[in-house]
Amino acid sequence: MDVFKTHGAFSWNELQTTDPESARAFYCALFGWGSRDMILPRGAYTTFQVGDTSVAGMMKIAPHATDVRPAWGCYITVDDVEVTCRRAEELGGRVVLPPTDLPGIGRMAVLQDPQGATVSIISYTAPDA
Q: Does pTM surpass 0.70?
């Protein structure tokens, strides 16, 4: 199963933190992860690897996001972000972050279930697209 193409599969984990360097040192020492830095349109980004496989990413919390605390989040792959957002609302959830393009990565949104838990959804852009 390719988690990046399978609707409903957990496909990515991401840490937002106030101190990326300290977080990198902690998680790499704790789990034996490798790390790679890159620059995305939204700024610096780090990926974590187990062997040659990237398993998670990390970014610094934006300075204007004063209400965001350091936390891990997860992404679930969907076939269509807009359709999934509408369905979540029909089921009593809400869209916290509306569908947003991530250039070179895909389209994502953040949903909240009726009990208040949040999850990110994503439809990945094909590498040859």
A: yes
